[in-house]
Amino acid sequence: MRQILILIVFSLFYTSTMAQNKQFTLDDLIPGGTTYKDMQPENRSFVFEKEKVVEKEVETAAETERTSIEGHNLFVDGKQITTDGSAAIVYGQAVHRDEYGCTKGLFWSPNTELLAFYRMDQSMVSPYPQVNITPKEKSQCYEAKDEKELNSRIATLEPDYYPMTGETSHKVTIGVYNTKTSELIYLQTGDPTNRYFTNIAWNPASTKIYVIELNRDVRDYKLNEYDAKTGQFIRTLLTEHNDKYVEPLNPIQFLPWQNDSFIIQSRRDGYNHIYLYTLSQEGPAQLKTQLTKGNWEVLSVQGFSKAMKSVIYTSNESHPLNQSLYSVTTEGKRTLLGNAEGWHEKIKISDSGKFIIDNYSTPTIPRSIDLINVKTGKARNLFTAEDKFQEGGYAMPQIKTGTIKAADGVTDLYYRMILPPDFDEKKKYPVVTYVYGGPHLHLIDARYKYSARGWDLYMAQLGYIMFSLDNRGAENRGANFEQATFHKLGLEEVKDQMEGVKFLKSLPYVDAERMGIHGWSYGGYMTTSLMTRFTETGDEPGTFKGKSPYKVGVAGGPVIDWHFYEVMYGERYMGTDKENPDGYEATTLLTKAKNLEGKLLIIYGYNDPICVPQHTLSFIRACINADKYPELFTYPGDGHNMSGKDRIHLHNIITNYFENHLK
């Protein structure tokens, strides 16, 4: 009997221990995995109906689309309104390579009678020769000469119109279609050569259109007003200048309770803030007040509270890692709405603006939904999702965050460190740094698990310490933080990442002889940079004295030379090679290939339209010339990123490379 009891107790203990030590799979953690959706936090759909909160199983379906693109031409309410559309003439889509706030190409007036749209002429742009190896899946870009060519099994060219830095760019104009009269006009913006037209907005009366217009060197912009009926230019409402670059990302928004006043977001004081303007009868708009101010950034404007006559916005005022929800009145009185901690997004505002449904996560809460009273700022919880990782009994890695000083010795940089589930500080562990490092993105914030990626958790489970550092140049820390890399992309970032290496080497449980690095896109550029910018003397442009600390690297979809990148992004940060020849010479990795010492795997989408294959292939050629031996893997048919099964395959490739060469 005693033996049976001991066996039962042991069995219960063993079962309980095993239940708390379940192992992740890549399918659990990577989008496209067969069990990925099962591991995502539960969600609930709450909506407002006459100021009451109602839970619905499915969001209300959106109204039927009134527009479509067929054969490259634009149709409105079933009627074709353009006739010259082609692969080179694009209608109704985002332009300027989705930069400067260009996220869509169609803009309905408030009364839904007028439609403003982009027309982009790319015919003068040099086409990049992408190849489709599955010819029966020919894209719209491909136009067969005859039926024989159409049915051929041979691979076909499907060019991307890709304006590289310093080369001829496309030309954009803005059309306005009147659904009542069928009249089509174009705004009289003048010659579109070397100009960008962004952030289109309407006035509440649907009679005026507002466009932010930039010159190609993007040091200046104008907010211009046009007559929606005639297309005639009326006036310039305001201008802005920056010695490095301006970067308008949001259209103006009119106050719902005051049709002659609008808000605009700007970094003119060094941080992104909200400014309130009033329209005059003629001439420029008048600045009424700066609504928000401080050494923090407004991250988004979510809408308005008509009841409180306030703007609802998110910012990182409470902490650089938070995205908290606030309101600000037109007199500048700010109120925190709900919980400051975490990352607040997907906000819904009631029609009156008295209440808000707030959807957010924190480092320990995967999802929480609150109802907030805008007047008081108080919140009532509607739903909190369980932590499927904890409740599922998985062996969870430990996640830490903190700060170190940048290479300038002054600026705080945030890092995230993920330790293996069975971490023992007396042991030595290999480290893999996951890096991005470029503008308009960050890796560490106060979302669930501090925004740790699924692959990071998986690698920690395999016994690696995973590390990430947001260096200078990343987003949400102000203009000086981002512009520290101006005209020298990849250099200051390397210096900051090396401060991260110093920090790692100071930890007794880090094995400094087993350090690896991985990143994608700009992170691929950083990965390759951190493995090739080190020489014995460090006296060549863009190199540093010493030896790369990384034994193994995996670079995905990398930039290699800014000559090969597109105009809008590349010239904003690097200028042209004519005005910044030293910068281009220092930042290219083609001349650094000869410095490669560790194991490097480069992976890219064979049809990448963003970091075109010319980057990777040119670097491989340079390595061949220098008698260096990186490894190469490509995904035919994939673009800049992999999805579905390809994404799981990709992360198996990356994991195996580190397992084979670092561990």
Element layout with pairings:
Elements: H1 2-19, H2 26-29, E1 45-49, E2 52-56, E3 67-70, E4 73-76, E5 79-80, E6 89-91, E7 106-108, E8 114-121, E9 127-128, E10 131-132, H3 147-150, E11 156-157, E12 160-161, E13 171-178, E14 184-186, E15 195-202, E16 208-215, E17 220-227, E18 233-241, E19 253-255, E20 258-266, E21 273-278, E22 286-290, E23 298-305, E24 310-315, E25 324-329, E26 334-336, E27 343-349, E28 355-361, E29 368-373, E30 379-384, H4 388-391, E31 398-405, E32 412-419, E33 429-435, H5 454-461, E34 465-469, H6 479-483, H7 492-505, E35 510-520, H8 522-532, E36 534-535, E37 544-545, E38 552-556, H9 567-574, H10 581-587, E39 599-605, H11 614-625, E40 631-635, H12 645-661
Parallel strand pairs: 33-34, 33-35, 35-38, 36-37, 38-39, 39-40
Antiparallel strand pairs: 1-2, 3-4, 4-5, 6-8, 7-8, 8-13, 9-12, 10-11, 13-14, 15-16, 16-17, 17-18, 19-20, 20-21, 21-22, 23-24, 24-25, 25-26, 27-28, 28-29, 29-30, 31-32, 32-34
